[in-house]
Amino acid sequence: MNKNIRIPFILGVMVIYIISGFNCAAQDWPWFRGVNHNGISGANMQWPANGPKEVWKTNVGVGHSAVSVVEGFVYTMSNKNDMDIVVCLDAKTGKEIWKQTYDCPANYFAAKPFDGPGSTPTVDQGVVYTFSRSGHALALNAKTGAVIWKRDLVEEEGAKSPQWGFSGSALIDGDRVILNATTGGICLDSQTGKTIWKTVLDNKGKAAATQIIETGGSEGGYATPVPVQVAGKKYMVIFGTQTITVVNPENGSIFWKVKRPQPIGVNAADPIVEGTNIFVSAGRHSGCARYDISKDTIPVWDNKNMNNHWQTCVLWKGHIYGCEGNNAAGAGRSPIALRCLDWETGTIIWENKEIDFFGLIVADGKLLMITDAGELIAAEASPAGYKEIGRAKVLDEHCFPAPVIANGFIYLRNTVGDVVCLDMRP
Q1: What CA–CA distance (Å, rounded) separates 90 from 74?
Q2: Residue 108 has pLDDT above 80, yes or no
Q3: Rounded CA gap, 332 and 355, in Å?
Q4: What span, in angstroms and rounded, lies between the C-alpha atoms of 224 and 38?
Q5: Exposure string (b/e) for 377-389, b if CB count within 10 Å is 16 or more?
Q6: CB 411 within 8 A of CB 404
Q7: In which element (H, E) is residue 20 found?
Q8: H or E segment at 11?
Q9: Sheet of 171-173, strands arranged across
Q10: How far apart are CA 201 and CA 197, in angstroms?
């Protein structure tokens, strides 16, 4: 990215922070997929001639929660001895600052790589919000780890866990915490944890409730809710196990919905938002589609050109970059490739089949990937084709979370709980 482009981009990000009142530095990564929920960072990055330099490495326990980085602290989740752990580390040293624990089973799967939490802490205005596989929603003091409030949404709200446990992270909208804990989402008060609304769909995709209800519930999903605007009004996209539901964050009323079935209900990759358009993709050859939610539910296009198991694509300058295929550790293994699609048409521009299953972000205009086997790869983000910048082995397998970049440092995590910090500053 040249200087003339980089400067206004960074200024634009700073404006977003000021308008939204975010309590974090301009290059922090406060929640899953970064400040704009899109896996894109404007932070400067340079691949060192001798490969990335390790700053620190520590182990936090099993899980595949990514990390969030705010004001010099790193937050992530893990599990040890059937106790979920929310941990805060010093971003410079990796030293543990505090941890908070609660009872929660680690093993949701026959395959060990999938044990532990799947969601990522969300940090906003000095509070850390977390969501466990079993449906525990917590708000913690970001400096001390003290519990502000705690909810068990399965026990208290009748929320039903999807087959492999809740995995979506919390989305903060002002004083609201929105979670993919029912088919249309559930909203809690950020200060008290009290339920504001819960939207439930029946098995035909119709709204069964849009207010607080005393009993019942419905299956939640794996993806994190993402914001979208239509005609100047904000809505939230909830990608459920079989549906896409767009709701009003104020009361949970449904603005738009469509069925999007997946053979085993694993719609795990987050929707990508561009204007009033959303892109979704799922594995097991379920394919991908782009919808304009300001119109009807007929897709702009719908094909089998991108099949994300759980790794979310990134939209960059009119092109979608992502991991095609299912991971070998899960059921439904399929060939893996890095693919580039045209946003307008959904056609494949190019693919590279020489990369193992990976998570992806865009940093400083470059593709940054971590493979299942622990290789960090940087490549040009260009529709002209695949051009590798560098690669290095940085962790042991299995690396499920996508990379995180904050203030020039890369943070990576594997499922046994190794977290590593690498210096990628220019």
Answers
A1: 6
A2: no
A3: 18
A4: 11
A5: bbbebbeeeeeee
A6: yes
A7: helix 3-20
A8: helix 3-20
A9: 171-173, 176-179, 186-189, 195-198
A10: 13
